[in-house]
From TrEMBL:
Residues in PAS domain copies: 221-254
EC top class, as a word: transferase
Subcellular location(s) of the protein: Cell membrane
Annotated PANTHER family: SENSOR HISTIDINE KINASE TRCS, SENSOR HISTIDINE KINASE YKOH
Keywords, sorted A to Z: ATP-binding, Cell membrane, Kinase, Membrane, Nucleotide-binding, Phosphoprotein, Transferase, Transmembrane, Transmembrane helix, Two-component regulatory system
Protein name, per record: histidine kinase
Organism: Streptomyces polyrhachis
One Gene Ontology term of the molecular function aspect: ATP binding
């Protein structure tokens, strides 16, 4: 015999299950409806038989005739009982005396015989309703005592309703019940088919195993790719956050299902993810990381956002800008070095050896003095190297760079401080290079374990209405560099400062341009550093 295979598609399986459930529920409902109907019809038949028996027992003269007549065919009791039977449609109306002998019966030959069922209950004064089998088959019967006018029991009346008529009524009700059940089944089948068709369209007629495999593949793909993925529902709650997004945004699995406003601080990152800022390849800074965010709405009112980490690329871009600036400075130094060598050669050819020696000492000593002064007061090697390099760039761009203050070599996060100082100096040199007498000033003020950094320039400054915008991701007034993005340095400065519990602000400086003040708490090791006067170094 061929084996019946189960449907593999999800929609077909759902349809089969729904049809089976609908059929089962319909049949169960019909059975539960027929069961009480049968009991109700039985009760009605027994009550009808009892009512006929009660009416017969109350018939005037019935008790007197039972006492005066004899239990033979054609007696008065038989005539009255047959009349009542025909009038009521009962199967039989039997009167009996206290001995249980019949005085009436549909079959006259049985008159004078004892009844086939126990009459003791009725003869003792009780009324009985029951379904029982006698000489005329199974009937719904009622039995009542027959009393003379004085109340003494002289016999009993037994009335039976043919049980076949009850069953006929029940069977007659079945077609109607089945019709209703069939209608309900048809409606349920149509509804199940509509649901399965809709499910088929939504699942693209895939099998359960295919759907399970797709879900497994989706989970593996989302958590293995090196690009952050964040899915939001229509209410702005996190529906999905993959591993890379958790790393970039500092989130965890426990944040899934919570509103975006509760898990991310207010800022550009939250605005871009929530859709309050529109565009492609939007830049945001989160936890010291430069992110590129793209957001795509979904049909259910939610959205899916992707995040790419641009931190290293941005760092390389800035290093490239710095390298270009250093190359320009080296080219200028090359020309200056050539001029100095020509000057030195001329002095030697003229026999002015002493003047040549003084010239070389002055030229070399100036650069050495600058490096020695910076290294003496800024003892962190990374920061000192940065300042010496920036001093060279500033000199070649015609900008005077002055470094004030001291800083011990016990910096907690020297790389972070180098990033902050480098970004501020780049902006300051760009602003001061366009002024008549360009000047930039850097001041370090240690206060216990806190460092206060001030960088001011002689540039055009920042208008008061734009002082909050300069710390916004992507905001800039400069032309785009080679790597195509600007407006990230100052937001990164503020994020790095806030990450240490500090702050970054801009105001009008003493040199006429902008003055950036960065407060960095807990930036120095606790080694007994004392506040003291801040010497100045000019480069």
């Amino acid at each position: 015999m061929p084996r019946i295979s189960r449907p593999r598609r999800l929609s077909s399986q759902i349809l089969a299950v729904q049809l089976a459930l609908t059929t089962g529920v319909t049949l169960l409902t019909a059975a539960l409806f027929l069961a009480p109907l049968s009991a109700q019809l039985d009760d009605q038949a027994m009550r009808r038989a009892l009512a006929i028996a009660q009416t017969t027992a109350a018939e005037p003269g019935m008790a007197r005739q039972l006492v005066t007549a004899r239990p033979v065919p054609g007696n008065p009791v038989q005539r009255d009982a047959q009349r009542i039977r025909r009038a009521t449609g009962a199967e039989y109306v039997v009167l009996m005396d206290r001995r249980g002998v019949r005085w009436s019966h549909p079959d006259p030959d049985r008159i004078g015989e004892r009844v086939s069922t126990d009459p003791s209950a009725a003869l003792s004064g009780r009324e009985v309703m029951e379904i029982d089998r006698g000489t005329l088959g199974q009937t719904a019967r009622g039995k009542v005592p027959l009393r003379e006018p004085g109340g003494r029991i002289i016999g009993a009346v037994s009335v039976g309703i043919a049980y076949e008529s009850v069953q006929d009524r029940l069977i007659g009700s079945v077609p109607g019940i089945l019709a209703y059940a069939g209608g309900a089944l048809a409606v349920g089948a149509l509804a199940a088919y509509a649901v399965s068709r809709r499910l088929q369209r939504r699942t693209r007629d895939l099998a359960i195993s295919d759907i399970g495999a797709l879900l497994d593949e989706r989970e593996a793909m989302l958590h293995s790719i090196r690009e952050g993925v964040v899915a939001l529902d229509a209410g702005g709650r996190l529906r999905l956050v993959n591993d890379e997004a958790c790393r970039l945004l500092g989130l965890g699995p426990e944040h899934t299902g919570r509103p975006l406003s509760e898990v991310l601080p207010a800022g550009r990152t939250a605005d871009v993810l929530a859709g309050r800022v529109a565009g492609d390849d939007l830049l945001a800074v989160s936890g010291g990381r430069v992110l590129v965010v793209n957001r795509m709405p979904t049909s259910d009112g939610g959205a899916v956002a992707t995040l790419r980490d641009r931190t290293e690329l941005e760092r390389l871009g800035r290093e490239l800008d710095s390298t270009h600036g250093l190359l320009d400075a080296l080219r200028a130094q090359d020309h200056e070095h050539a001029n100095r060598m020509h000057t030195l050669l001329g002095l030697l050819e003229l026999g002015m050896a002493n003047e040549a020696l003084e010239y070389v000492t002055e030229t070399v000593g100036g650069h050495r003095h600058t490096a020695e002064e910076v290294a003496a007061h800024i003892r962190d090697p990374l920061l000192a190297a940065l300042l010496v390099g920036k001093a060279t760039v500033a000199a070649e761009r015609g900008v005077g760079l002055r470094v004030a203050g001291t800083l011990p070599d016990t910096v907690v996060d020297p790389r972070g401080l180098v990033t902050i100082v480098g970004n501020l100096l780049d902006n300051a040199l760009d602003a001061a290079a366009g002024s008549a007498r360009g000047a930039v000033e850097v001041e370090f003020t240690p206060r216990g374990r806190t460092v206060v950094l001030r960088v001011s320039d002689s540039g055009p400054g920042v208008p008061e209405g734009s002082r909050d915008l300069v710390f916004t991701d992507g905001w800039t007034t400069k032309p785009l560099p080679a790597h195509g993005k600007r407006g990230l340095g100052l937001p990164l400065v503020r994020r790095l400062a806030e990450r240490q519990g500090g702050s970054a602000e801009v105001s009008q400086g003493a040199l006429g341009g902008a003055e950036f003040t960065v407060v960095l708490p807990e930036s120095l090791e606790d080694d007994g550093t004392r506040d003291g006067p801040a010497p100045e170094q000019r480069a």
